[in-house]
Every structure is written in C-alpha cells, then in structure tokens.
Specification:
By secondary structure, this protein is α/β, with parallel strands linked by helices. It has five helices and seven strands.
Length: about 170
C-alpha cells in the first residue's frame, strides 16, 4: 500500500432493487456494512461512493453503478480521478467456487469466470487485493439451477445469516 494515497474499497454488485440481497451483490452488502447505517452515498464516476477514514487512512468505499459486467469502467474512473495506485485497490466480490460462509483473500490471479473481475482486470490490471466471499455453487446443494441464475438468486434466511457473519467480520 502507498501510505500517501487513499485506499479504494470496491464492493461488486448490480444496481437496482431487483438485485438487492442476491448472491452476486455480496460486495455491495459488504461495503454497506463497512459504511454503517445512515450514511449518504455520493454519486460520482459511475459509482456510489463514501469518503471516510479507516484505521487512520483516507478511504473511499465504492459501489459501481455500471452493472457487474462493466465494473471496470467505474473502478478505472475513480482510480484515475483520485490517483489511486493499483496496490491501494481492494475489491470484494462473490465467488461460486468457495463454499458458502468462507472468505478467501488474494492478490492478483485470474478472474475464474467472474465478469466483474474480468472487467476490472481489463481496465486497470489484475494485481490488486481481492476479498472473495463464498456463495456456494448450485451443485453443492444438488440444484438444477444454472450458475447464472444461481448468482442472481436471493439467499435463503439461513444463507443470509451465514453471509452476514462473514460480512460483519470482513476486516
């Protein structure tokens, strides 16, 4: 991390009420939790942002409003405007290949088919920190649902509780 530059924490998701509490919006849920209740998000650079301080460090929380497949547009615009280096970018997103309730972190790597990550990689490169939150895979529960419908589906009550526990302890 470059200490003299802000940290950009991006939660991935899709804008709109129809996508609230869906598996694909775990990133939005996480940054909402980090932000806390009663905050006012600012619309800028194709994202909703909140400027704050975390652990004494200037931080920008962001929820791209470009839809998942074009997340890189918003991330790139914010990084350029605020002169944020790649090592100060943290992206929180869902991961179907991680069991529900697990969290993994890594720097760089491939997209594993995640279109939001593909978009960000295309715009800014891939060597940034990723916090991957497991949403499980339909095969884990012997479901015939195809993966694209799975990620756009809502969590059951029990699943939401498991996800909330991960999100509440994200940092």
């Amino acid at each position: 991390m470059q200490d003299n530059k802000p940290i950009l924490i991006v939660g991935l998701g899709n804008p709109g009420n129809e996508y609230e509490n869906t598996r694909h919006n775990v990133g939005f849920m996480a940054v909402d939790k980090i932000a806390g209740d009663g905050v006012i998000w600012k619309s800028e650079k194709k994202a909703l942002t909140l400027h704050c301080e975390m652990n004494g460090k200037k931080t920008i929380l962001a929820k791209p409003q470009t839809f998942m497949n074009n997340s890189g547009e918003a991330v790139s615009a914010l990084m350029k405007f605020y002169k944020i280096p790649l090592e100060n970018l943290i992206v929180i997103h869902d991961d179907m290949d991680i069991k529900l309730g697990q969290k993994k972190e890594k720097i760089g790597g491939g997209s594993a088919g995640h279109n939001g990550i593909k978009s960000i990689d295309n715009f800014v490169g891939s060597e940034y920190k990723r916090i991957r939150i497991g949403i499980g895979h339909p095969r884990d529960v012997n479901s015939p649902i195809n993966p694209s419908d799975w990620v756009l589906g809502k969590f059951s009550g029990d699943e939401q509780e498991i996800i909330n526990n991960i999100i509440y302890n994200i940092f």
